[in-house]
Automatic annotation (TrEMBL):
Single GO BP term: translation
Gene3D superfamilies registered for this protein in UniProt: 3.30.70.60
Residues forming coiled coils: none
Key word Transcription present: no
Chain's gene name: rpsF
Protein name per UniProt: Small ribosomal subunit protein bS6
Gene Ontology cellular-component annotations: cytoplasm; ribonucleoprotein complex; ribosome
Functional note: Binds together with bS18 to 16S ribosomal RNA.
Key words of the record: Ribonucleoprotein, Ribosomal protein, RNA-binding, rRNA-binding
Family in the record: Belongs to the bacterial ribosomal protein bS6 family.
Single GO term (MF): structural constituent of ribosome
């Protein structure tokens, strides 16, 4: 099991009050595969430095979780298929 940090940018048309519940549905693969979700931090709407899919802002969510490498890849793949997710960035956290 390894620790990961993932930054997810969601479509700004999603209601900010429902981001927590929407995001919980998106990351259900982690607990299903035996991993744990350590922390979910919603940063809210932020302006982009450049447009992404003709949008000038997005809702940023930072997720810290512990899982197997295969589970992390599967989560990244599933988020990439979702239409409400604009971008993802998956990083492995060094434990040093």
């Amino acid at each position: 099991m390894r620790k990961y940090e993932m930054v997810v940018i969601l479509d700004p048309s999603i209601d900010e009050r429902t981001v927590d519940t929407t995001f919980e549905k998106l990351i259900k693969v982690v607990p299903a595969e035996g991993g744990t979700v350590d922390n979910t931090d919603v940063w809210g709407k932020r302006k982009f430095a450049y447009e992404i899919d003709k949008k000038q802002e997005g809702i940023y969510v930072v997720l810290n979780f512990t899982s197997k490498p295969e589970t992390a890849k599967e989560l990244d793949r599933q988020l990439g298929l979702n239409e409400s997710v604009l971008r993802t960035k998956l990083m492995r956290v060094d434990e040093k």
